[in-house]
């Protein structure tokens, strides 16, 4: 009788240990994906990631067809769906790859126990991370709280397991169980179709992910360490949305950066691997601190005097703050469902420190709008910027949005792409239009307050206010 293969955040055939085990069992394989209730299992998915998921499931189904198989889609509580499918197919075994977010883990533990108690075989495998988070611990058995020793521990583990190739064929069952139609899940936006620009930027699916990895190594890895901070340069891998839904494994990425030609300086390779290891560190935090997206890792921040101001929050979301680098970032997020890492740090600092709006509001907005929304990386990075996270940037380090823009987008190319109303402004003023003389603005066709907003806060005053707020905490840094 058949074996069920449960796909979750591992929407790939390559380097997929559960798939390998299912194929090696010699039984007919029934690949399934379950749309679990919101807030359970894989959800809740943000709107942008639902767009990605639709296309990723379609791509996975196509790849499975290449193996003589297909993807069965079902909706509902994972355990009930699986029990029904076991009955319908006569299967007595199921395999899956582990996930490490608290909601997903809770579902998996329950499913495994219930099925095993009922005499079924339920086995899970590693593959979402380089190393199992339960294995990475300090000498005293505790989780790591800072990144550098965590990285050293990863180095001591040695290389992650070598990635395995997809099987050439899967044995099909004599009778396929019914599947939901993908379109019936309504994952794509309709009215309005705010994702209309996404296809210019993204091709979901594992084939595109592998292609992107190859292109990145060939064209950008050799200057990654220096150029990765400049948002106008195609200098980073753009693999994050593929990683978020598991279309490529971190082990595949890691091993692709081994044995490269000597013309790629080692510091670039190490730097890139260290970023992949940051993802790992974020999961390490989430694994040991399941409330990462709702509670301060450092409870000193629990009494922080956040302000609530719907109008300012809305200006930030819409990219109408009057600070061009912040607005460019927020509009890149609207247009492409993605934002450059340097700019994510700038816009997060602006929300938290210039507007004094709770980091959780920003985390939730990013979760809904990023195609790479990830429960670990998003929460950990927001807490990192807020100063409340593990090994965080101190709260008193407040980014000046003008100087950040001038340093990392000196010729304003990024601003001109995403804030076109400022496109004709001189480089001297592109990051500070509010200081431009009238004739310069006139020549550029910009009237502040009409074509482009005046700053919604004065950065110098906002900085002072943020430091006062910090000083009001009992255990000031
Ligand atoms: P590359 O520079 O090519 O890096 C390779 C991979 O390393 C990335 O794909 C990613 O998986 C990982 N990585 C790189 N930087 C980080 C980092 N700082 N933390 C964790 N992993 C990292 N990343 C997400 O994947 N999902 C999120 O929801 C997310 N939210 C963020 C929120 C804020 C406020 C900030 C400051 C950062 C956030 N990041 C998030 C991290 C980072 O911005 C993205 O991973 C990166 O921009 C993705 O681009 P890339 O794939 O080209 O990265």
UniProtKB/TrEMBL annotation:
Which Pfam families does its entry note?
A: DNA_photolyase, FAD_binding_7
Cofactor(s) for this UniProt protein: FAD; (6R)-5,10-methylene-5,6,7,8-tetrahydrofolate
Domain Photolyase/cryptochrome alpha/beta, first and last residues per copy: 1-130
Q: How is the cofactor bound?
A: Binds 1 FAD per subunit.
* Site, Electron transfer via tryptophanyl radical: residue positions: 306, 359, 382
**Gene Ontology MF terms in the entry:** deoxyribodipyrimidine photo-lyase activity; DNA binding; FAD binding
> Which residues span the membrane?
none
This enzyme's EC code(s): 4.1.99.3
Source organism's superkingdom? Bacteria
Q: Where does FAD bind?
A: 224, 236-240, 272, 372-374
Could you tell me the keywords of this UniProt record? Chromophore, FAD, Flavoprotein, Lyase
Q: Give one GO biological process term.
A: photoreactive repair
| Reaction(s) catalysed (UniProt annotation) | cyclobutadipyrimidine (in DNA) = 2 pyrimidine residues (in DNA)
Q: Which family does it belong to?
A: Belongs to the DNA photolyase family.
Record-given protein name: Deoxyribodipyrimidine photo-lyase
- Taxonomic source organism: Rhizobium lusitanum
